[in-house]
Inverse folding.
């Protein structure tokens, strides 16, 4: 028996996808110019036709079910292809349009990616960016992201990793703190200093500091008086205020060192360089807007040695 998708069903799918993206019927209705009741009825018709519950509903929020996640993943890609087909027929296929969703760590977002976005958005006025700036690992399918930037290389062979740049960690402190407490000359001296520890969201444990000693990489737990969760940049702020030593990447500290707010110590022990990578699913259709964003980021940030890595080795670290 041949099946036909009526226009009202396609419209319902569009409303469903928008509700999934924005996390609510009211937000989807506002974005698409309809009433929340119309969104609710359309999604109800979809669920009745599919005989599957797509959302769990409470008085305060909606949440995709597992089936809803799968359905959204398939439908959002199909809608993107339909939009591109229409642009191709009207001669606008070369103009990227639509939404690009990217997850980026706090540090890399503030110091690398976010300063580039005004130029990208000016170049592509029909593209909208949804940027999640934080240190939580995301699931491309369940969370609906097109791209992510992470430190390290993923073990997941379903992801393509495009190395952007290599970052090395150093230990920094404010000149006033060093004048009062002295400058550490060896790793053993760290025990006599106030250190700032960052708590990994994935484990709830303080991240050890990374050093190179006699050519070997070592992970050194530090005795911290301040533990910081979620935002790595809070460690930097505390150190700049004279609160103690922090270990951060040189690309973050560079501007503060240039202004005389931070000084690097223990330079002979600076840790091993690790790559920041742009990640995206290997087999997913990429819209023109996503392809344009990938090309832009690689042109702006990728080092000459950057290359595709469909199944690289290494850890996937959310910093």
């Amino acid at each position: 028996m041949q099946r036909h998708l009526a226009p009202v069903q396609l419209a319902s799918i569009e409303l469903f996808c928008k509700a999934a993206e924005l996390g609510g019927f009211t937000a989807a209705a506002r974005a698409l110019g309809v009433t929340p009741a119309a969104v609710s009825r359309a999604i109800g018709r979809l669920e009745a036709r599919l005989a599957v519950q797509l959302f769990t509903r409470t008085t305060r929020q909606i949440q995709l079910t597992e089936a809803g996640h799968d359905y959204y993943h398939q439908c959002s890609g199909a809608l993107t292809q339909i939009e591109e087909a229409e642009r191709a027929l009207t001669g606008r296929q070369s103009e990227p349009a639509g939404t690009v969703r990217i997850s980026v760590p706090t540090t890399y977002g503030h110091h690398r990616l976010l300063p580039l976005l005004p130029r990208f958005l000016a170049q592509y006025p029909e593209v909208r960016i949804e940027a999640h700036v934080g240190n939580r690992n995301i699931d491309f399918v369940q969370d609906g992201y097109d791209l992510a930037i992470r430190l390290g290389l993923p073990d997941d062979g379903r992801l393509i990793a495009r190395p952007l740049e290599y970052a090395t960690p150093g230990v920094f402190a404010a000149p006033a703190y060093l004048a009062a407490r002295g400058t550490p000359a060896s790793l053993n001296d760290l025990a006599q200093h106030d250190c700032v520890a960052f708590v990994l969201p994935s484990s709830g444990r303080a991240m050890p500091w990374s050093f190179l000693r006699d050519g070997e990489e070592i992970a050194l737990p530090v005795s911290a008086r301040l533990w910081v969760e979620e935002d790595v940049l809070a460690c930097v702020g505390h150190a700049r205020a004279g609160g103690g030593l922090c270990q951060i990447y040189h690309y973050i500290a560079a501007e503060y060192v240039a202004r005389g707010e931070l000084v690097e110590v223990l330079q002979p022990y600076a840790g091993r360089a690790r790559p920041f990578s742009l990640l995206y699913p290997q087999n997913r259709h990429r819209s023109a807007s996503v392809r344009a964003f990938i090309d832009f980021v690689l042109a702006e940030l990728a080092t000459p040695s950057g290359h595709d890595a469909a199944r690289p080795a290494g850890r996937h670290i959310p910093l």
Q: What stands out?
A: The chain has three domains: 7-89, 98-165+274-317, 169-269. The chain has eleven helices and 15 strands.
